[in-house]
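Dissemination and training. As part of the outreach component of the grant, students in the summer workshop were shown how a complex can be specified as a set of sequence lines and then modelled as a single object. The example used during the hands-on session is reproduced here so that future cohorts can follow it. Participants entered these lines:
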Amino acid sequence: MNRFAELLDRLVLTPSRNGKLTLLTDYFRSVEDPDRGLALAAITGDLTIAAVKPAMLRMLVMERMDPVLFGYSYDYVGDLAETVSLVWPQSPGDIANHEPTLAEVVAKLQAASRSDGPKVLARLLDSASISARFAIIKLVTGGLRIGVSARLAKQALADLGKVDVAEIEELWHGLTPPYTELFAWLEGKAEKPKKTAVALFRPVMLSNPIGDGDLEKLDPADYAAEWKWDGIRVQAVSEGGIRRLYSRTGDDVSGAFPDLAEAMDFSAILDGELLVGDPLQATGTFSDLQQRLNRKSVTPKIQQQYPAFMRCYDVLQIGDEDLRARSFRERRGRLEAFVQTLDPSRFDLSPLVEFTDWQALEELRRKPLHPVIEGVMLKRWDSPYVTGRPKGPWFKWKRDPHTVDAVLMYAQRGHGKRSSFYSDYTFGVWSGPEGSEELVPVGKAYFGFTDEELRQIDKYVRDNTIERFGPVRSVRADRRQGLVLEVAFEGLNRSTRHKSGVAMRFPRISRLRWDKPAAEADRIETLQALLD
Amino acid sequence: MRASDLLHPRPEGLYCPAGDFFIDPVRPVNRALITHGHSDHARSGHRSVLATQQTLDIMGLRYGEGFAGTTQAAALGETIALNGVAVTFHPAGHVLGSAQIEVVHQGSCIVASGDYKRQRDATCEPFEPVKCDVFITEATFGLPVFRHPPDTEEIARLLKSTAQFPERAHLVGAYALGKAQRVMRLLRDAGYNRPIYIHGALAKLSDYYQSQGIDLGTLEPATVESGGRDDFTGAIVVGPPSAFADRWARRFPDPISCFASGWMRIRQRAKQGGVELPLIISDHADWDELTATIRETGAGEIWVTHGREEALVRWCELEGIAARPLHLVGYEDEGD
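and obtained this result:
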């Protein structure tokens, strides 16, 4: 249990992806079965433990200590799980010679009935050290919140076994905790687990961005073009009566889209974009789609308001026939015929874009016919469907990003290589009537600049600090003085969480406008005009 | 004699009218008794200072030789009479030279403990409980949430991290007096033999610790002149916490920021400070040490100062021990 607790403690404070991967692979390498598999399940959200409510936790600790002292403690720490883990009273006799393992903790929690759950939890807390208590409480209150996605955990497994992460994703849904056969394979002690389950995820084919000079080398006749839709990439797998929708990283998202899953009354594997709205009438924006994302389940009302559909652009399998080795041209023909047999309110075909040369396509890309289009895709007519991101067969050619001139308001110190640099910037645009304008924050960005530019901004921040809050500095920013940043971003969503009412997608610093007076930065209306 | 007549707070610090002296005064006074060398307790400019030799030495290093008009060294356990008041210094286990001050007059005995801890520390004399009527305790970590783990476990985590991330430098923030040397000594005791790189602010005090027989091994200045950036690959660098937010830290390759402090017990504190590897190593007593010490002194009355007084006073009430906060101004309760 202590090793798992230590892993959680380190992950939550480690900002870099590589750092997290190292911590995870080291853990998987050094911890034995079944503990490591259970830890993996806890991280990917595949571990089922009956939840204990925060109020119950509070009651348990209040039975054991002075409520006034608990009150002082909770006020100071601010987090219930952490406070309880720290103040839980412990007499020296409580710690058994043997600290419980993660497997023992999970077994006891899973075996507990609803009524004796709290008692079982209390006994476990008695026997554990402070960080182990914290980890136990996190397990039973649900949600580890350690900043590690299931995808990252799978990448760590791939690093451990020196295999492609696609192989793990493909197997994943056929495996269950504690994943003993998976670890045995990754450590070279056993064969790769057989895919026994049906309706598994098939690793998807990805594209490369068109870079400078790429197009000159390509013959337009070799490529098909289609619009790039701004939804989420999904794979619809319907096999042996089982229907699943997977995200492009193999997460099962069927639960969030029962309306679409319902319509998958076929036997095939389709690749496409998940969007909301009515394919025949109007395609919803990404903002609309967000109403349906990151939900475990979804109410009928939301389903009705934002119906999900799939815009199909490839087919991997029809019946038992695997089509992945066939050319894109052949798959496209099969797909066109197949989509015609499906419910037209749930499935449609991503249309091809006719073009003769790159210049003509460039014009179409700049002026797409629909706001939900974010560029064009190029696919080689003769390309098979292959896993990963091979260079050549598929390209994405995105529309140019939006830009806005904003004023730097706050700067925060970075981590690792950047721990002594103010490298995370919050910026704002002007709002309010003329004569009493004020800055309203519209986003945060921490990349897009060169190392030299970072040094310049850092110096500017240090020289123009007006207030400090821990690692954050507020920087002088008014009509007369302020640093203008040109910020590039992919799109804008409405947001009730931000004062400005907008949230940027993928913002980054594209240029430093040392030349531009702060008063001439953009106004909030410029951004509002971009909404829908 | 009533205890509050023997010692009571004045704006300058804790004052003993009978002996005409202050304990750890925050402003220049005629006669000061000083528990230890941290700058909020040991200030310069007093006419005369009575402290342990090591505390006097440390003050000399920090403020220069003329830090006081006259100085007198107090040997641990030896009683000195000041205007008929008997004063004895006892080890406090906080940092090198740190002492509690026992004040006895007309049958009344008060121990002003200054800052103290009970965990074993190879860089200073261990705390010695003294029976008394009134025990004046600090309360820096006076909340039940503060429970310091064994320091050896914390150092083991640091060493594990250096093995996990051999390409990165580990920057350990630690206060220049006491904590820094304790961390270095713990590293040596854990078998770490490579040179430890130190910030310039640590050099004089670390040399002094070594001269007092506390072996810290090979210490190298963490300067660019002493080598290129790559020389710090895999290194452990110790410096004052403030230095790591500074441009100074840029000379190290992709550093992992570590901070050795009792405050690191609280995750949010670590997060806010941008600390990736918190090391819960404290020179102050944690909650369990505070309460155990109060019991051990057998004191019938407890005065609680600098820190979270209210929780400790509450605990004393529950235990049936008279207690009150002693409002002394000028001590930084943040330092650890």
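Chain B has a mean pLDDT of 93. Students were then asked to discuss how this feature might be tested experimentally.
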